[in-house]
Amino acid sequence: MSFPRVLVTSCRELCTRAPRTPYGTHRDKTFGNQQRLLRIGIAAAVLALAVWGIWAYLQRTVMWNMLDLSVYYNAVDSLKDNQDALYTSNFGTWKLPFIYPPFSALTFFGLVPMGFAGLKWFMTVTSLLALAAVVWTSWGMLGYRRSAGRAGATLATFAVVLWFEPVVWTLEWGQVNLALLAVLMFDLGQPDTRRWKGVGVGLAAGFKLTPLIFIVYLAMTRRFRAAGVALGTFLGTIGLGFVLLPSASAKYWSDIAEINNRVSEQLPVGTLNNQSVQGMFRRMLDSESLSSMLWLLCCAALAILVMVAAAKASLAGQELLGVVLVGVLSLLVSPISWSHHWVWVVPAFVLLLHHALRLRRRMWWYATAAFLAFYGTWPLSLDVDGHWDGGQKLQPWGLIWLAPRDGKRENRWNVWQYFVGNSYLFVGIALTVLVAWWVLRTTAAAETGAETEAEPADVAPRPRAEKVAAES
């Protein structure tokens, strides 16, 4: 099938009013040797946490600063005196702007009495628990029932994904990425029959606007009640902000573009750490207008392809695949996707590992190992040119950091540095497009085959339900 025909066939199927099979009604998979797997998982998780804790302690001047958390803390603390300063001042060690919606400030406000030292411990424990919850939910979305085996698999996987570069840097910066991911995964992993499904998506969108894309996903997969609940919850967070922080809310929602652009005053969009499509074009082109135009065109093409494929995957019963596709798409099309935002590699890794375990083919094991090596973190001492420097702190760098960074060094990359410095993005786009095309092609082929087989419908036996009705 040609690409246009596959896309048209898929869109036509999504536009039908045919009922979908409710997600979350079957949990029929399990792991073998459950008790043994549980013991291995516990040992692996304890060892991984011990190694990470020792490393964080030895390099605490770097790995315990939590510079982003200091922005949140100082910004929210300023609300005690003047809420107008929330979106007009800079905060934290690096003097960065606070750009999240007012609801996020309200969420953090209740944590201010902990003090910054207490908040660092709270965010660390919360992020680690959230990481385990994401892995647990991912296995559940693949159809694994609650059992000792699933707990063991969760702990063993946790011990591995703890060393992904986005995860380590989320912990080091004191970021909220893992907590938001856990809320999204928990909500989307609920059965479609749950009346409150969508609340988590709405809350996450109220905290950070990027998760709004999942409301579109729920609507495209014909889960209109969940999409409505998510949208209503999101609007509720806006209303709560206007009630409790009226001045700050008015400033944010009237000048949202200007507020978000304030980040580029301190951290340019074209810096290495921004692994988004717009970041790539800014590093490649001197013209801001041309890079923005190419970014919009590229994002439009990616959004159509990936959203349709994600919806088709969901309708075919592959819910985790659909959610991961949408999550990665949100990273690609967002104006800014720092490397620590790429925590969507965690459920993607679970998905790869699941196929490796079920299919037992070398190709899947090689792919899983390569994925781990590529997005993993490595203890390196690097300078701003990506070279080894023994005088630098031993930090958890990913492979992208082997390219020169900061001080507009990104604009002087050679061909090799260009591919290394954009590698998160390039690999993410390549895998997403390939998987999306595979989903569209296989589902379209299945539908065509089903239609062909269903042609002699006049002579085919009636479905059992109709037969019983006729006999009665």
From TrEMBL:
Entry keyword Hydrolase: no
Pfam families, per the entry: GT87
Record's subcellular location: Cell membrane
Comp. bias (Basic and acidic residues): 461-472
Residue ranges of the region described as Disordered: 450-472
Topology within the bilayer: Multi-pass membrane protein
Top-rank taxon, per record: Bacteria
Residue stretches spanning the membrane: 37-58, 121-139, 198-219, 226-245, 293-313, 320-336, 364-381, 415-440
Keywords assigned by UniProt, alphabetized: Cell membrane, Membrane, Transferase, Transmembrane, Transmembrane helix
Principal localisation: membrane
UniProt keyword Transferase present: yes
Similarity comment: Belongs to the glycosyltransferase 87 family.
Protein name: Glycosyltransferase 87 family protein
Lineage of the species this protein comes from: Bacteria, Bacillati, Actinomycetota, Actinomycetes, Kitasatosporales
